[in-house]
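User: I'm curious whether this sequence folds into something compact or stays loose and floppy. Could you predict its structure so I can see for myself?
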Amino acid sequence: MCKFGKKRGGQVTAELMLILPVFMLLIFFVLEYGNIAYHTIIANHASYEFARIGSLVAVKKPSGRPDRTVITQKVNQAKQKVFGSKAGGIGVNVKVETTGADPMYKKHRHEDLVVTVTYPIHLIFPGTSYVLANEPRREGIRRIKAVTRMPIEKAYLSSDTK
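Assistant: Here's the prediction. I'll summarize afterward.
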């Protein structure tokens, strides 16, 4: 009985050496997807908050046209506060789209602010960073794009009805 148990000791080691890399890669994929999901939530929330800020500061006077320069300036200030030193690597694009005109108030146009945040994630686990990364893969960076559309807030004046 003792001899039989000793012969199997090398077999277990060999099987472990074959299975361990596959098992570790599987664990790394699960952890990397968790990391990507976490940063996706951050990018989507940042996009929403930037759109909210931009939609509130876009118009200075009732029923006026949105000022894209003011929107961009306020969104960049918010980006700097939120991301600090990492703000330079994060791209924010601001676009104003007209969605229609209000039939009751002739001068009033419906406009939406579309904010696109491009958020780079530095992947952290070996093996998975190459598979999940965007081109060039050797850098190990995945870029997430989060887009939020929000209506621009405008006040009505009683003279708008004419």
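Summary: The mean pLDDT is 87. The helical segments are 2-57, 68-83, 128-132.
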